[in-house]
Design brief:
Blueprint (H helix, E strand, L loop, with lengths): L6 E6 L9 H6 L15 H9 L12 H11 L1 H10 L3 E7 L18 H5 L8 H8 L2 E7 H10 L4 H15 L5 E5 L13 H14 L9 H14 L3 E4 L10 H7 L6 E4 L5 H10 L3 E4 L9 H8 L5 E2 L9 H23 L5 H20 L12
Parallel strand pairs: 1-2, 2-3, 3-4, 4-5, 5-6, 6-7, 7-8
Helix pairs in contact: 2-14, 7-8, 8-9, 8-10, 12-13, 14-15
């Protein structure tokens, strides 16, 4: 397998800090099992049973019950430490949003139904804790919707809310490496900021009618948030609703060209080809291959369409450190398969293959997010 420098996981989440039982553990695996079956009988389940047990001094392919017993015997902190340090990840970019239902990562439980996602844990490790456990640098990605919800809880008027939102976004930009938005289109990302009048009306309606802690879904307010983030110059990660065509973002991407804000599209199967085309079309647009790399042939399709300097790796892992292990394993297997095929066919030289692999594994992310090189050390967000 390819020798790679420390990986940059360009979009991930914290993990559960406490002990977890068999039923709860399985509930955090991706997908939904049929009645009477188990999610351990899945690609992720089999990969977990193959690659995670040896990191905990257990035999490969041991039963789920045996694995969790050994995990409990070590203790949550030690198990998490061993699992994360066994991935080869040197930097985590951690989306700290607690609104699990708003995302759709394909390698994590975030692609589950709203009912399942609503039951996912909210108390996850912060970037600093995740980085310490993994002996890696860790930085925060600030999700815009929860940020606005927090501001709304302490803002009594429309004017105060809009002023406090602007201040909160620009304040977060001082410590975060990126912003993220989920489910904000269509039609929430027009080719330009929304007018003040509609923004004020939308804010007034939302403040008056939202339940305590209610999610922000108004497209005008979401667009207002996104354009506030664009103004900071930090990279912006965007994930649309499941099944939404990424090409619908063309107007927004055209409008943000030349503004100094890179846009990273988080889209898995079946949208990966459209995402790659957008990355090839716009100089400031990048494709986070994420969990799409787990499917045979998908990485090759993305790299056929997008320039190699436009493709980023991430796991999208959530709640379980095991999902970092399996996400990295799937990525490395797909990358190794692709590189071997290209070199064997004479299309790539071995030095070029190693260079491209290093770019996708971490070099591109370091450039886009302004991260230090591994030898420079890192920081915890």
């Amino acid at each position: 397998m390819l020798e790679l420098p420390p990986l940059v996981d360009a979009h991930c989440h914290g993990v559960v800090p406490g002990e977890i039982g068999l039923g709860s553990f399985e509930a955090h695996l991706p997908g939904a099992a049929a009645p009477g079956t188990t999610l351990f009988d899945s690609r992720t389940g089999f990969a977990l049973r193959r690659w995670c047990p040896p990191l905990l001094d257990l035999e490969p392919h041991c039963t789920p019950a045996r694995y969790l017993a050994g995990r409990r015997q070590l203790g949550t902190y030690e198990a998490t430490r061993r699992l994360l340090r066994g991935t080869g990840i040197g930097t985590y970019l951690v989306d700290t949003a607690v609104d699990a239902a708003s995302s759709s990562d394909a390698t994590s439980p975030l692609d589950a139904s709203d009912a399942v996602a609503a039951a996912l844990p909210r108390d996850l490790t912060a970037p600093r804790e995740l980085g310490a456990a993994g002996a890696a640098a860790a930085y925060e990605i600030v999700r815009l919707e929860p940020l606005a919800q927090q501001v709304a809880d302490t803002s009594g008027t429309v004017g105060a809310f809009l002023a406090n939102v602007a201040e909160a976004v620009h304040g977060a930009a001082r410590t975060a490496v990126a912003f993220s938005a989920a489910g904000a289109w269509p039609p929430g990302l027009p080719a330009g900021p929304p007018e003040p009048g509609p923004v004020r009306r939308a804010a007034g309606a939302w403040l008056a009618n939202r339940p305590a802690g209610g999610r922000l879904t108004d497209p005008v307010l979401l667009s207002h948030l996104v354009w506030n983030a664009v103004a900071t110059g930090l990279p912006l990660q965007i994930r649309g609703p499941a099944g939404a065509d990424p090409l619908l973002l063309t107007g927004f991407l055209r409008a943000t060209t030349g503004l100094g804000t890179d846009v990273v599209l988080l889209h898995g199967i079946p949208d990966h080809r459209h995402t790659a085309r957008l990355a090839a079309t716009f100089p400031h647009v990048y494709a986070d291959i994420g969990s799409a790399s787990a499917a045979p042939g998908v990485m090759a399709e993305v790299l056929e369409l997008a320039p190699f300097g436009k493709v980023l790796f991430s796991t999208g892992a959530y709640a379980l450190p095991e999902l970092y292990v399996t996400g990295v394993r799937f990525f490395r297997e797909a990358l190794d398969r692709l590189v071997t095929e290209r070199v064997t066919a004479g299309a790539w030289t071995p030095p070029d293959a190693r260079r491209v692999a290093a770019m996708v594994a971490g070099g591109n992310a370091r450039r886009v997010y302004g991260l230090r090189a591994p030898s420079d050390g890192g920081g915890h967000g």
